[in-house]
Write a structure and sequence with these properties.
Elements (H helix, E strand, L loop, with lengths): L22 H10 L4 H17 L9 H17 L12 H14 L5 H29 L5 H5 L1
Helix pairs in contact: 2-4, 3-5, 4-5
Length: 150
């Protein structure tokens, strides 16, 4: 195991044996070593964003039209595919990451931002509920709490 106190880069001419490597520098070095898969996910998120920008915005400001728009965004997110035909964002974590990338690139005043935020909240809630359910099941004897209550 590598000691967390060991330097991540070779010591330069200005570094002494007692020099401390700043955390920001260590994080930057670690981020530079990330695989290209992250950029593939970014490209997929940007391709999805381009498809979402082609969706017609809600016709009116009614809740029904906004819900239909949000549903269309969520459906596009779930059904978006790689060029090879596989689902691009299969897990809730991948969906959340893609939503985060898209939210950074969308104007906060656009209807698309509001729709993406609603889908992000729904995805986060679903992820939380799944985690909670799994924790409850693991901490019990394997029987979900709702079966005991019923």
């Amino acid at each position: 195991m590598i000691s967390p106190f060991s330097p991540t880069a070779p010591r330069g001419a200005g570094m002494t044996a007692d020099a401390v490597t700043p955390l920001s520098q260590r994080l930057a070095a670690a981020a530079a070593d990330l695989p290209a898969a992250k950029s593939d996910a970014d490209e997929q998120a940007r391709a999805l964003l381009a498809a979402l920008r082609r969706l017609p915005p809600p016709l009116t400001d009614s809740q029904q039209d906004r819900d239909a728009y949000i549903d269309a965004i969520a459906r596009q997110l779930r059904d978006f595919q790689h060029p090879d035909g596989t689902v691009a964002f299969a897990t809730l974590q991948q969906q959340s990451d893609a939503l985060g990338i898209m939210l950074k690139e969308v104007d906060k005043k656009s209807p698309l931002h509001e729709g993406l935020m609603a889908v992000m909240v729904g995805t986060g809630n679903l992820q939380f509920q799944m985690t909670k359910w799994m924790q409850d099941t693991l901490l019990s004897d394997g029987t979900p709490q709702e079966f005991e209550d019923w």
